[in-house]
Amino acid sequence: MSNSSPVNPGDTATAASYNSLRSDVLDPATGHAHTGGTDGTKIAPMGLTGATAATRYVGATASGAPASGTFAIGDFVIDQTGKVWVCTVAGTSGTWVSVGGTVGVVGWAPVAHPLGHEGSASYTGATTNIAASGGSVAVPIWVPAAMQLQSISFYIGTNVSTTELRLYKQTLNSGNVAQNVLDEVPGANSASAAVSGSATNTRTVTGAPVYLDPGLYWLVLRVTGGTVLSLGSLAGGGFSPNRAQTKTLGSALGATLDFVAATWTKVTTIWAVRLDGRVFGETTAY
After folding, report:
1. Beta-bridge partners for 86
2. How far from 118 is each of 29, 123, 152, 274, CA to CA, in Å?
3. What is the DSSP letter of 103?
4. Which residue from 161, 127, 123, 167 is spatially nearest to 143, judged by alpha carbons?
5. Residue 86 pLDDT > 70, yes or no?
6. pLDDT recorded at residue 5
C-alpha cells in the first residue's frame, strides 16, 4: 500500500503500510499539521512564502489564556468561551494576546478604576467597614484598553484584617441571557494575606502579567480574618446609581461566583480599589 493508496473495507494493514501512513501524516517535511501525541512532532504549516514563522495549536482552556505550562512564540489555544489566544512572548506561562481583542483600541491601560471613580476625590479620609469572617464587596471595574494586569491596589483604614481578592468576568457577553455565575479571570487573584492599616496596599496577582481585554470586570475583596476591615470609600450622592454590592460569603473565593444569589446588597459607595497594569514593555506596574 503506497502513501496515496485508497483504503477499502476488509483491507489489512501491514507494519510497512502503517509506517508509511504514519510518516505521511506526522512527518513535518510532508506539510501535514498534527500535534503528534507523545512523540514530540509539532504542527507543520504549509510555509507559503511570507508566512514561514513557527506556529502550533497547543490545545484549549476553559477560559482565557493558559495560566501554567511553557510555551513558544506563535503557539495558540482556543478557549471554551469562543476566544483564540496567541503567545507573543515565550516562557512560563508566556504572554498571550486575544485575537481581535484590541480591534479599534490602541495602547495599554496603565490603570483601571471602579465605575464612577472620581480622580480628584480623597478616598483616604473616610472608610466603610467590611464584616469579619467572609464580608465581601464586589466592585465593577472598567478597563478602557487592553491591559497587562500586574497588581491590585486598595486603601485600608485603621481596622485591619486578612483579605483575599479575585477578578471575575461575564463570559456569555449577552445582556439578554441570564448568567448568575461569573467565571474568574485565571491568574488575576491574590491569596489571603494580612494588610497594612492607614495605607495603600498593593498585591501582585498570581499570574502576573495577566492579559485583560477592554471591558467590564468585577473585583471581589473578601475578609478572611476574624475582625472587620475598613476599606477606603466615597459616599454616593442623592442621584448616584448602584456602584457595587456586598455580602458575607461563607466560603473562600473560587473559580466561579454567584453574583445574584440572595443576600447580595447593592450600594452606591465608590470604593478605593484599582487594577495596576504594565506599559512600555516594563516588568512592573506603571
Report:
1. 76, 97
2. 60, 9, 18, 12
3. T
4. 167
5. yes
6. 60
User: Residue 280 belongs to what H/E stretch?
Assistant: none
Segment (H or E) for 19: helix 15-26
Beta strands 256-258 and 181-194 are antiparallel
In angstroms, the CA 17 to CA 125 distance is 79
Q: Locate all alpha helices (DSSP H) within 40-177, ordered by sequence.
A: none
Alpha carbon distance 209, 98 (integer Å): 14
Q: What would the grid cell of residue 38 be?
A: 507523545
Q: Give pLDDT tens digits for 107-162.
A: 899 999 999 888 777 777 788 999 999 999 999 999 999 999 999 999 999 999 99
Query: What pLDDT was estimated at residue 6?
Result: 65
Cell 473565593, located at residue: 253
Is 111-278 a domain of CATH 3.40.50? no
Q: What is the pTM of this model?
A: 0.69
**Spatial contact of 168 and 182, defined as CB atoms under 8 Å apart:** yes
Query: Where do you find CATH 2.60.120 in the chain?
Result: 111-278
Confidence check: pLDDT of 31 > 80? no
User: What sign results for the dihedral spanned by CA atoms 209, 211, 215, 219?
Assistant: negative
